Hints:
Structural class of chain B: alpha/beta
Shape of chain A: globular
Strand order of the largest sheet of chain A: 4-5-6-3-2-9-10-11
Helix content of chain B: 25-40%
CATH architecture of the largest domain in chain A: 3-Layer(aba) Sandwich
Strand order of the largest sheet of chain B: 3-4-5-2-1-8-9-10
Strand content of chain B: 25-35%
Oligomer: heterodimer
Amino acid sequence: MSLNRIIYSGFIGGVLLLVTAFVVKGQNVNVFGCAHPYDWQLFMNPNAFDAVNNQGGKVLFIHLTSGDDGNGVNNKQYLAKEEGIKRGIRHMSNAFGSGSGIGSEMNHELIVVNNHSVDRYQYRNAIIYTLRLPTAKENGEGYEMHQFKSIQKLFNGENQELATIDNKSTYNGVDDLKTTLSEIIARETTDNDLLIYHLIDDDENENPTIHSDRLYTTKLFKEVAEASKFYLLNLYKSVSSKTEEANVQGTKLLNSFGAWGATCSGVSDSLFASDWNPENNSLIERQYYRTANPKGIDNENIALNKTTFSSSFETNSESKKAVDGDINSWWGANPHGEWWMVDLEDTYEVSRINLVNYFQSQRVYRYYIEASLDKENWQKIIDYSKNENTSTSAGATFHLDNEKCRYLKVTMTYHSQNVGVHINEFRAFGKKVNDTQVAISEQKTSIQLYPNPVKKGENLYVIAGNNKNSIIEIYSLTGSCVYQRVIEEETPVVNISLQTIRKGVYIFFIRENGRRKRELLIIK
Amino acid sequence: MKNIVLLVWFALLVTNGLNLKAQNTAVYASPHPDDWQLFYNPNISSSILNDKDTVIILHTTAGDAGAAMGRNNYALAREEGSLRGMRFIVNSSRTSEFESPSVENITVNNHSIRIVRYKNAIAVFLRLPDGGGGGGYESTGHQSLQRFYRGEISTITAVDNSTTYSSLDDLKTTIQQLIVRYSQKAKKVGINVPDTDTSINPGDHRDHRHTSLIMQELASGIANAEVRLYQMYVTRNRAANLSGNDYYINAGTWAATTSGLGDMFHSTTWDNTHNSWVDKQYFRMKSSTNTSKAAAVEPVLNLEKTKLLANEVLNVAIEELTDKLELTIFTIDGAIFYSKEIDAQKGTVEVEIPLNDLKPGNYSLIARYNKHYFTYPFTITQ
């Protein structure tokens, strides 16, 4: 094999690396941080239902207190409420065409997290944690049964420790509890997941008369959330929502009542009063929340209901089904190699793509995604052609380097079960780029750098297509030009020596015919 | 002293008179284990909670869809769903005195019958075979209430083989004795059944219709019986008429019911087909007059054939229409199989309805015309 051939083969692999260089996989994880066993049913639905049933992805329900109302374990009220939680979640999971139920067993484990034993239950994509801390009164005063201790007092340092009502564990200080929550989150997620926290709003101007347990549960979770790379906070009104207009209707209202009805059924079948009463029922008709986005995460699905195209489609599986917001409908075509495309109808800097393939029956799909500003020049931005993972309702999420584009095209290359290919939902997130920005910005197209990152002192190889008379420039982030070279003849692979350039992050430019293309270059 | 005793007695009488609402018995005849929740609620909740009636939920068939007691305990899962719904209603306003229901097999008219009692509610399970499209299922010997009612079969046996009814009168007598057993002190016995007037309740399931016919006939032998007739599948096409607490209790009862099915490894049926009935309840008293049929102008509509094979096409010829015509066919589960609107027009309209995937059984093409329902029966055979 000639040297040229070896270098070129290296570049084939290099192309793949470059394509995926700025792509990081993750998933959306919804985290419902609840002080009491009924908080998600009364204040955070229908969002909880949508998270379990429609969005796909893992959903965590973390309940800090047992809702024991000062009874401890004596009358087993806490177990009745836990059955209510579990029945409500099973009901949501089993709704709408999930096929035969998977029964009432919820894969229960007593796990040890940060040296504390915690009950964990799993039912499909829903995971329940019950910490069984004692419930306090509205004002944060604990019950006599628990030596008047409470989450509020632990948070404020008035209590140095707080034991669970079943005495299986004792939290020594607020940091111990916080660390445990952090470790629960870490156990269930990866660094690249987008965590969507659902918490009671702790701003008393937005949500007056907040129960102490709820207030301090939110404060704890907010501090835990800060450690996440990608997160959003959905902050809900609690009982203060009852003064607002009813705003949940139709199917969403029925689903909220379904979860609440199943919860109450579980509690009363365990021989305790269920709290099904007019006051609580009126809360089901209301869901008020605001979204905080401390890290500026793009959170609007810019592909939703946008114009779509495909190379072909199967009956009742048109291309628009992939952007209809329903993960139970899909675009379908065959055979492998068929493509699907969305027109975002404007130019966006896309920071994240989530793609859900058909997720029943253990299927593996492979594909690659290209981006374009004009529907003619395409750049491969995601290569998933070596995927071995089974598809799930969470889909695959890819974080991008603000890819500027208007069109996104998915070419399906493989499906493990048959020749058909399917996209249940394609979601994209990003910021719209205004026209002026588009005009003055550098076009990012198909420069391929290998390796990137590159070690200081090693050579950098560049593939840039038709590059005769083009100019290569490398700029530091402070704007200094550290390298410049004119390519006088067409050269398939340009070899650049980086001996004199320091370690760091640079912008690599190539200018041709008055147009400039860019790529991020890391020298390490 | 005597006066004081009399006064106390009178006070007790008045007090009890105010509280003793449980003088009535309400019978809700549920052809399948999920019918009472979807079509008789919130009336049934009101009977249990407000009127404090003794409420009998009489499940005539097991709703087993031919599974009998098999297919992963499907019939038992449906019973658990019904019982969860019943307990949910009873418990919904209760703050204490929770207890486990009592379960027993009682003998009535020499037939063994499963009874589950919880407070003032009694669930009765006759466990007769689900009749499907009217002809029954092969797996349960093609037994059905329709065939039993029409005399096409001489006996009908419960799917758990607990008993066999040797004649229609035997079944009627058994149900009648059962009702009398639990309503001896009742001033009034409410009988709640599907409406059998097809101009009001068209396209209904054959088990619904024949449960109702049987109940209406035996009601005449029960003193102070009062019959309420309910619209069933067809309420899907009607406006929602429940809100507030009536809607809440319906939704909660239905959720409790469906959770029972899911917890026993079966599809919950919390789906668009079933959920569309939750915000509706339409009924009338049997003695009340119906909308005048004399005023109804029936469309001139002819079916080319009324007996078809599976996968054949139902050809319908409709002559001049002076008003909009709505055509509907329900599946035996109440889902909409076919729906079409035809505007007023001169000349004949020909409609072809492919019957692919429609199971063998008795069906109706329902026509809504000039605000009246008309039904045109047809049968699909294997």
